Amino acid sequence: MAGNLKVIHAADAAAPGGHYSQAVAHGGVVYVSGQLPVRANGEHSADQPFEIQASIALDNLMAILRAARLSPRDLLKVTVYVVGIEHWPAFDRIYAHYLGNHRPARAVVPVPVLHHGYLIEIEAVARGAQEEPS
């Protein structure tokens, strides 16, 4: 396999709750694992309104991008899993606030349930720095 796999960890985002990394980079692409609305200190927010959960999940995504030395403008594709499609307009408004004029490809997927009773999970793919030659 050409190139190295680089694990990305952001101390100011929720730590992985299982056998996975917050993100990995390979071949100039950063793959961000699904981010639930768990605060960086591990505090759960499943009992909070959708808007707060969406903001926490996006905060985690932004922290991971920063740890990879990237910004929201580097996002290529975002996939959002939402319990209750009625939350789509609120999510779109909050998402636009975080991304400004940048509009990466995106899918919003309605799902019946998410882990721990959360209402949202966000995963992403971003362009990253090119790997240095070995």
Commentary on this structure:
By secondary structure, the protein is an alpha+beta fold. It has two helices and six strands. It has helices at residues 50-67, 88-99, and strands at residues 6-8, 23-26, 29-35, 75-83, 105-111, 120-127. A hairpin with a 2-residue loop joins strand 2 (23-26) and strand 3. Helix 1 (50-67) packs parallel to helix 2. The longest helix is centred in the middle third of the chain and has 18 residues, at 50-67. It is globular and about 40 Å long. The two termini are 13 Å apart. The model has no long low-confidence stretch (mean pLDDT 94). InterPro entries: RutC-like_sf (IPR035959), YjgF/YER057c/UK114 (IPR006175). It comes from Pseudomonas trivialis. One of its GO terms (molecular function) is deaminase activity.
Structural class, judged by helices and strands?
alpha+beta
Helicity level: 10-25%
Q: Report the sheet with the most strands, covering strand number, pairing sense and barrel closure.
A: 6 strands, mixed
H/E order of the elements? EEEHEHEE
Rounded Rg: 15 Å
Number-wise, the strands total 6
Q: Main sheet: which strands, in order across? A: 1-2-3-6-4-5
In terms of DSSP E residues, the strand content is 25-35%
Chain-averaged pLDDT? 94
Count every helix, treating DSSP H or I runs of 4 or more residues as helices.
2
**In one word, what is the shape?**
globular
CATH superfamily: RutC-like
Based on the structure, what is the oligomeric state of the protein chains? single chain
What is the terminal separation in angstroms?
13 Å
The domain tally reads: 1
CATH class membership: Alpha Beta
Low-confidence stretches: none
